[in-house]
Amino acid sequence: MLLSLITLIFAEPSCTPLSDGIVLSKYYLESCAACKRLNPILEEIKSQATKENINIKFREVECTGCECEGITNFPTLEITQDKESKAKAIGYKDYNNLSKWIREALSLDQKIFTNHIDHTEGVVKQLIARDFLTGFDGQWLILFYDDSNDMRRGIFKELSKMFAGKLNIAEVSKNESHNVTSRYNIEEYPLIMAINQGTPVSYSGTVDLGNLAQFVEKLYTPAFQEITYLELKAKASSFINGEPMYVVLYKDFEVASHYFNELAQQFKFKAQIFRSSDPAMFAAAGHQPKDTSDFPNNPDHNQMVMFTLFKNSSFFLSPEKVDQTQEIISWIFHTHFSHVTNITNENFYTVFHGIKPVILLLTQSDMLVDSFNKVSAGWNLGTASSNLIFATLDSIEYPIFKKKILNGVKEPALLFYDPVKRSRYKKEIKKTIREYGVGTCGPRGFYGTVDIHLELETKLAEIFEKEAAILYSNYFTCVQSVIPSFYKLVELKTRFGFRIILDESYTIPFMYQAPENKELYKSIDLIIGSLSHGYPTNGGFCVGCKEAIEFQRLSGSGYVFSASLPAYLMNIDKKLLKLRQEGYVVGKNGEYLRICINENTADEDLKNIGEILRTSE
Question: I need a labelling partner for 560 at 20 to 30 A (CA). Which of 78, 173, 375, 434 fits?
């Protein structure tokens, strides 16, 4: 018989009476090693049960704190249905034996719980391509490597011994994982990634045994733990940036777990979600949950369970109903940022691929951090969430992050990042197409030039401080027309009369200020570049003296014979170049990064944060 009911998975606190329905109870002692070895296997079974829609409740009972009638050996597993015992097992079971026992006890289909990757405890699992055909259940730490001599492989061997029986530790070569780079957002090798119940979290911190061990401990530590008000205050006393904690207020554990246990597991790396039945917590929060006995008919779960946020010493009640999971997730997203968020492995993707504008302080160690904290604290005072994210990125601690999004920017710098402004390009494109059409279908010298061509050429010459510029329809035709083959250093040019050609294709988005060595820059005869490498558009260009540019207009094959660049693309190019002059870095996908301050004006600009935000709109 295949059970295909709504899944309800939770772990009840010690001594809670058995629930109706199907319950798998684990009786354990904290000092029992075999009990701890069973934890990751049960986590994987829980995850599989969710996917298979098996209506099983999971319950854990620590037998040192209550009476476990008839239980003398540990761990003991028992399956009950409507409080009647159906099967009991003593001792440790590996995944295959445990899943078989559950199937037989409940008369489940033999295919249930078979989606499993075998793994030997204390040994690094060698993954192959077919292991990625299904999701990873339970908790995994995986190394994606391309060098068999990578020192990380040695660290993973040590981690597998340290955390044997607690989670799965594995590695996979580039050859075996190249087909999943898009699924897991793998941009370069090597990469260390945790997978928590199917949710991937990349690690970009310091690669050593100590730091990775801390990361792993967070991965396997259970979520949705009970907390008292005194414990909450003790945790919050060490917070300095208004870090949030979520507390589910309840009297009926089963109802609270039904709505929030899986959510707590899902958000383990993004938010701390606790549960509390402490009357002192109810009083401090100003909310009193009701019990089932308070309702003669049809209990109201929204009055029995209350989802609250504790932030900056204040409680905030979620406005969403407990069964509106997506709305609750959205509320968590908007409220889980501190008044200053330190960019880490766990939150990098959330911050830079989200929907909120970001005020980012690029710093080294504590440079300007205190001043930034004061500004952000005032901005967030008395609110559960803000329309902005205030964040700091320490380039010493996370050099990879800086290289990825801010290569070439000097610390300290305050940047305004807006991940949604890219949508404004669509309006500009539609407007330009209505006025100019989609293209001229002719070369520049033969009815293929419009006013935007000339305006963009003027802008390029202005930016590079040259006499003139010429625009091509793409980078290839530009190179083909400009370079007959000569590239040497400045000394060779001076000695032999050569010309110097500089390709600025990859530096355009980051050239928010003039080059430091202007004299060396002036010695460059021709500057060429692509507008498609760093910007989400197209086009190639060349700037230099008037004579060199006019010569190309007569004999440059790509200019004379190729259809000209469409007006709508040029208009976007022109606007992006203007933004760059105003201090923005514009990413490949069109997102904005504005350089608001630098090391010379940092303190003063921090005081004028409101004006910076106003002019960034």
Answer: 434
**How confident is the model over 1-48, as pLDDT tens digits?**
333 333 444 445 545 566 778 889 898 888 888 888 888 888 888 877
Q: Which residues contact 526 (CB under 8 A, 6 or more apart)?
A: 482, 499, 500, 501, 502, 542, 543, 544, 548
- In this prediction, the residues of the chain whose per-residue pLDDT falls under 50 are 1-11, 14, 484-489, 512-514, 588-591, 614-617
The CA–CA distances, whole Å, from 145 to 129, 538, 574 equal 14, 35, 41
CA distances to 25, 88, 96, 111 from 103, rounded to whole Å, are 15, 13, 11, 9
Question: Could you tell me which residues come within 8 angstroms of residue 6 by beta carbon, excluding any fewer than 6 positions away?
Answer: 53, 55
**Residue 257 pLDDT:** 85
Q: Give φ, ψ of 96 to 5 degrees.
A: -65, -45
CATH 3.40.30.10 domain position(s) in the chain: 22-106, 125-220, 223-336, 338-419+591-617
Q: Quick one: pLDDT at residue 485?
A: 46
Ranges of beta strands (E only) in 395-539 are: 413-418, 468-472, 501-503, 526-530
pTM of the model: 0.57
For the record, the structure tokens of 220 come out as 């396997």
Compute CA 147 distance to the chain's CA centroid, rounded to the nearest angstrom.
26
Contact of 145 with 171, CB cutoff 8 Å:
yes
Superfamily name and number for 125-220: Glutaredoxin (3.40.30.10)
pLDDT at site 572:
77
Angular region, 515: left φ>0, alpha ψ -120 to 50, beta rest: beta
% of the chain surpassing 70 pLDDT: 80
